Amino acid sequence: MKIHEKLRQYERQSPTPVLHSASTLAEDVAEELQIGPMSVEEKELLQLLTSPHMRAVLSVHDTVAQKNFDPVLPPLPDDFDDELEEESVKIVRLVKNKEPLGATIRRDEATGAVIVARIMRGGAADRSGLVHVGDELREVNGVAVAHKRPDEISQLLSQSQGSITLKIIPAIKEEDRIKESRVSGWFIVALFDYNPGEDKATPCQEAGLPFQRGDVLQVVSQDDPTWWQAKRVADGNLRAGLIPSKHFQERTPNLPKSPSMNLDLCPLFPTTAGLRRSFRLSRKDRQGSSGEAPDSGDPEFLTYEEVSRYQQRPSERPRLVVLIGSLGARINELKQKVIAENPYRYAVAVPHTTRPRKSHEKEGVEYHFVTKQAFDTDAQNNKFIEHGEYKENQYGTSIEAIRSIQARNKICLVDMQPEALKTLRTAEFKPFVVFVKPRIPESRRRRSAATSPGGGDHGRFTDEDLQEMRQSAQLIDLQYGHLVDRVLIKEDTASACVELRAVLERLERETFWVPISWVKS
């Protein structure tokens, strides 16, 4: 505030530069200093005056002092079209570097006129504020464009460097340009990969914005209901690019879609029910509502999800951490190890079971022991996140078991079948999903290198086993990858435990993108 007040005080004094040629004065002083012997102070002064940084500062000073801010432009052309009224013609002169002009054009089918179709936010045309959607383009650098193809005009624009002069007939008068373009300024996360170079439907591939699943995009314009303008968050590029709108992406089947929309293209992937029993690991031979194969009915059309920044407040309950794993990941072992290292901060939801209690077990510690009738009643009332049957006994994890852990201000870790994510993704739990998958060697020759004493045990698996593990990870990524917040490649249990702990620590102190419905009041 003191600095601000000093600057305001200095500004009120209306300061003026003492001279307009500090650079020249510095050069003259440097020449004088080099005449004859120099003292230590004179040598230091000479070094300062001739340093690149000081010369640049003085050059900027002279530019400001002379108020010479505008680029040097050639004189305006005198050969205006006599047929056009003077007030209807606008000569726009832009200075651009190697960046695109940031505008797309189209030809009016009725009149044949070349019309500005859209202005890309952040581009040279947008920053100038002189070119608008609907303007008719007549000339580019004195070259008439009336009989040129759109690609020829685009090439003419892209090849122009430095000064570019456009002769335009405005769509509407400047004084009537009151309507502001709709800038939503909202954020979305992409749920599919998009490459404009492979999209035949895009109006301009060069203006398209490529992105990958999981990228956070800022939508800056929805003027065109079919093609939105957006920027990648944390991307240094100020110019927006075109992305297919949510409605257009959903109704146009020939556009690149999320992999989850093309499950029928993966015939090699086994369903969960078809996986070998020996690879169910912690799930063993459980079957039931959550142990069956995922529904292969109509695929979900994945486009975008609106998101917002979120950071956990001290007064809020900790976020739920959900571990999902492919075959061979042994996530139950990983979960138990993390909890054992810090039982005061992390805990697991105690499951329910109908099997008899063993002599060493305590109610509410290893399990909640209930009757089959009580279990079935809770299952019918949707009190379980997931449940199944193993050796004629029922097992399930209840919602209340998770809530009881969070009520004690502990982070609850649950390992679930991926299908349970649709139930857990609520504002109450705000789940952070970690997908654990083992690092699988590419061939038998590399398998020995993947074996480690810390938990890597690929050496005892056959190539068929490793192939099923690889396909399991691909299937989960295909169907549920858009719901995953972090992928953890498990080399061995020890290193995976260290990485998981680091993720849990970040979860409490850092900001994350979450669905906007989780943070709306």
UniProtKB/TrEMBL annotation:
It comes from the Eukaryota. Residues 91-172 form the PDZ domain. Residues 15-72 form the L27 domain. Residues 1-11 have a biased composition (Basic and acidic residues). Residues 318-505 form the Guanylate kinase-like domain. GO terms for cellular component: adherens junction; membrane. Residues 1-20, 279-301 are annotated as: Disordered. It is found in: Cell junction, Adherens junction; Membrane. Keywords: Cell junction, Membrane, Repeat, SH3 domain. Residues 183-253 form the SH3 domain. Belongs to the MAGUK family. This is MAGUK p55 scaffold protein 3. It comes from Denticeps clupeoides (denticle herring).
